[in-house]
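INFO batch 0412 | record 1 of 1 | parsing
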Amino acid sequence: MRVVQFSEFAGPQALRLEEADEPVPGPGEVAIRVSAVGLNFFDTLVLRNKYQVTPPLPYSPGAEVSGTIEKLGAGVTGLSVGERVAAFIGGNGCREKVVTSNCRELSQEELNYIDGNPIFELHDLEYIHNIRVISAHDNFVAINSVLYVDLFGQITSESWGATMLGGAGGLPAFTIGAMMSRGGRSIMVMPSTRNEGRISSIQPTFPPGTQVTISRTFTDYIVTEYGIAGLLGKSQRQRAEELINVAHPDHQDYLREQARELFWP
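INFO prediction complete | emitting tokens
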């Protein structure tokens, strides 16, 4: 089968159309003949090895695909050959066929139900990411993933220093919209560490050039696997203490030392 992939991190010019072996679905998996692939900003970063995760090479862009099921692995139920499905596969999507266990059937019954049904609406980003539209919903809760937060409560989902890692997406609009909503809350989620535990996602300060996606004044809740930090309306020292309490234990002593220098001079 044909594959669009690259074997070196050299930008779009490294992409090649090549031949590869057809994948065989294992237990619980299906093989999909791909009709369409979703390409996003992070794919352009991966091509230059500027994303926060470095994939093994060769690698094919595209994390989402849609197509038709060609083969079923052992134990697959509720799906059949010939059905149209969409799947999130995380990467390696620009190929004629993929194997996954994470797909969703697009049944004709569902498509017929949606077609022309007034309860379903499609809008462009000018409407969906409009702060006034978001804030008009009472008790709106925005849940977003982010890259790093510093002890001031500033958040970045875009860069580390001047190195771009992603885009802002809908984070600013949904965060501010949720905070303006009557009874609304904003929740930021992230793992406590990155790079196999070597780097804390909670940093004393950001390096110069870091793009601050959310200012400290709009940061509400920060959630890691170690708990919940509530920052809104608290003093700077209280914010630092809240964040250190949800940091990975291996990094807490360092963060406390830095916090004392910053906020307890």
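INFO post-check: The two ends are 64 Å apart (CA to CA).
INFO record closed
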